[in-house]
Amino acid sequence: MIRLHPTTLSAAAAGLLLLSGPVLAQDAGGDGTVTLTFETGAPTGAVMVALYDSPAAYSGGRPVGQVKLDVAAGETIATFEGLPAGDYAAKAFHDVDGDGEMNLNPFGIPSEPYAFSNNAVGNMGPASWERARFAVSGPVAQTIRLR
Asked: Are the C-beta atoms of residues 2 and 80 closer than 8 Å to each other?
């Protein structure tokens, strides 16, 4: 079973990460663990995190896990356990004002901090799967700066 800590995302926040709905726990039987520590610029709101296991899922499909971190309560670490070995990538944004949405400017550009695994950056859009992916075959830890 894939275990997520500390809480799951709301459907509205998940949709903003290009998710297709709530994630159901799977009997994956893996022993991989991904721990993502987020550096935030403000001690308010929440960090919304989604973890993907394929390029198709990363490009708008269903994540293998999603977590909401309450930054105001001091939560900055997301842990995904029970993952089978393979490649994964994460997307995250910092909902600074706590409204449950990623705010955009009039041109559709995010006005709240966001990030991808490996601290990958995109070229005129989100970071690609190739830049954000990382291998999991046991415990993996990353520190990600939200900007």
From this structure: yes
What span, in angstroms and rounded, lies between the C-alpha atoms of 59 and 126? 10
Percent of the chain surpassing pLDDT 90: 73
CA atoms of 2 and 79, how far apart (whole Å): 10
5: pLDDT strictly greater than 50: no
Query: How many Å apart are CA 101 and CA 53, to the nearest integer?
Result: 24
- Which residue reads 């393979």 in tokens? 86
* Cα gap 63→98, rounded to integer Å: 22
88, β-bridge pairs: 134
Query: What is the C-alpha separation between 114 and 125, in angstroms, rounded?
Result: 12
Cα 104 to chain centroid distance, Å, stands at: 18
What is the C-alpha separation between 6 and 65, in angstroms, rounded?
12
* Rg, Å, the chain Cα set: 14
Kindly indicate the confidence band of residue 123, based on its pLDDT and cuts at 50, 70 and 90: confident
Can you give the pLDDT at residue 88? Answer: 98
pTM of the model: 0.81
